[in-house]
Each structure stands twice: as C-alpha cells, then as structure tokens.
Amino acid sequence: MNEQYIVTWSEVYERIQKLGDAIKQHAKDKPVKVYGIPRGGSIVVGVLAAMVKDIIIVMDPKIADIIIDDIYDSGTTAKGYEKYKKQMIFLYDKRTEYNNTWVVFPWEGNPSVDVEDNVRRLLQFIGEDTSREGLLETPKRYVKFLTEFTNPPEFKCTAFDSEGMDEMIVQTDISFYSFCEHHLAPFFGEGYIAYIPNGKIIGLSKLARTLEFFSRRPQNQERITTQVAEYLQEKLDPIGVGVVLRARHMCMEMRGVEKPGVFTTTSKMIGQFKQDLNTKHEFLKLIRLNGK
C-alpha cells in the first residue's frame, strides 16, 4: 500500500488562506466567480468564500472565472473540465508533491471504508445487487486481498562469499503472479533466473523473492523481466544475469482477442549472457523452454 498523508484542518485552512491571497492579488479587488468541483473542491470553495471577501460561488463551471478542486491526482477529473478553458487551481497537486502517496482529507473519513465503498459502487455499476448475501463482505475482502497482494514480504538480499564458484547458477519454474497495468486483469506464469557469480552468491530463496517483489503490483511482463535482472546485477555485480519469464495473460484470454492458452515469453540478458552466445545458449538449454 502507498504511504498515506493525513491532511489536518489547520493545514487546509492555511493553504486556503494562501489561495485566497493569490486570488485577491490576481483579481485586483474585483469579485471573482469560483466553481468547486464536487465534492472536495466544493468544500474548499465554501471555506474560501467564508475566509475571503469578493469570492462569489457559482454552480456552473461555464460562468466561473476559476475552477477549484481539492487535489490534482491522476488528472482524470481535471481533464473533464479543460473544455471550459478556465483557470484551474488545486489545493494539492500530486504532479509536484506527495507523488505516489494516498492523501487523505479531513472530510473523507476512514480511507479503508471509502475504498470499500468504491468497490461496492463498482459492483453496482455492473448491475450487481451488493445487498445479497454473497456480496455483502466482498468489498472488504477485495480491499484486503489487494492490500496483501501488493505488499509482498520484505526481504534482505543476503549475499555470501562464492568460495570460488564461477559457474552458472540457475533457478527454474519460479511461479509468479501479477496484474496487467492496462486492464487490471491477472497474468501469471514461471520465471527462469540465472547468474554467473563474481565473488558473491545470493541466498537461493532470494531469486524467487526478487521476482515476487517486482511482480506483485500493476505491471507489464517486459518491465518485470528487466527490473529483476537489473536488481540482481546491482546487488551482486555478477559476470552476467539472465532472466526469462513465460506467462499467460487474462487480458487477452478473457477479453479482447480471447485466445486461451497463449504464452508470452520475455527475456533480459546482461553481461556475459548478452555478449557470449555460448553462455546464452547454455542458459536456454538448461531451462528447457523449447520443450514446453
């Protein structure tokens, strides 16, 4: 789960005061018509009007001088108001601060409850009756599942003296699971990881841990492959690293092209695995992908 930042009312008031001062300076003592984007923006505008004179709240963004929202997050909400060609102001802007942080405002209540309610509304959107027995606890379970899945156990990348070992070390058939970042549909398969020590070897479980760490989040297969290889290269400084992932993607089996049983294979070779064809062929022979 992303880090949370809990906004206090005093911080809200302080930021709104600065916002009001900027608006007054820009308006030069002329009344300013402001529109607050529901719901957070409406709260900000309400407090702003109480603190600053000559602020006129309007209910139609078309006639506003300024459109205000509590936060610029993904940008989706803001894009919906760009057609009005008005100045837009945000109390918090995640393009410049608190990036990848869950910002919680004092009017939002318990974040986990709000998230569960969003899941419930999503089920209602697709026509489900969320009051029926089978779905009553589903939002809570789903939030718990996402929280657990996207927070794999932390691990220490323990390394030891190689004691002269300088041949290829390979692990095969390492199961992994992830979510396609484009559709949030699962993809899963096996990983094949190899490296040639350069004075250090890694604990055997850490190869699987590394793959688990980078896969358990919204991802794409190509990126996971590269991240695993580059992480091992950074931590071990080996003579070379080879990583191959082979996976099935539900985003192309359950929807879209709807082709079940299709496997996607990606690879990342570093050092000797990339520079020396014999090393690369030995790795591919050891993982025996051609027979699958």
Structure description:
This protein has 292 residues and is α/β, with parallel strands linked by helices. It folds into three domains: 102 residues, 3-Layer(aba) Sandwich (Rossmann fold); 39 residues, no CATH class; 133 residues, GTP cyclohydrolase I, C-terminal domain/NADPH-dependent 7-cyano-7-deazaguanine reductase, N-terminal domain (GTP Cyclohydrolase I, domain 2). It is built from ten helices and 13 strands. The strands form four sheets. Strands 11-8-9-12-13 form a five-stranded mixed sheet. Strands 3-2-4-5 form a four-stranded parallel sheet, covered by helices on one side. Strands 1-6 form a two-stranded parallel sheet. The longest helix has 19 residues. It is elongated. The two termini are 36 Å apart.
Structural class: alpha/beta
Number of folding domains? Answer: 3
CATH fold description of the largest domain: GTP Cyclohydrolase I, domain 2
Instruction: Note poorly predicted spans.
Output: none
Number of helices: 10
User: What integer is the average pLDDT?
Assistant: 91
Helix and strand succession? Answer: EHEHEEHEEHHEEEEHEHEHEHH
Total number of beta strands: 13
What's the gyration radius in Å? 26 Å
Q: What does the main sheet amount to?
A: 5 strands, mixed
Distance separating the two termini: 36 Å
Going by CATH, the architecture of the largest domain would be 2-Layer Sandwich
| Strand residue content | 25-35%
What spatial order of strands do you see in the largest sheet?
11-8-9-12-13
Provide the helix percentage: 25-40%
The 3D shape can be described as elongated
What is the fourth-level CATH superfamily of the largest domain?
Answer: GTP cyclohydrolase I, C-terminal domain/NADPH-dependent 7-cyano-7-deazaguanine reductase, N-terminal domain
In the CATH scheme, the class of the largest domain would be: Alpha Beta
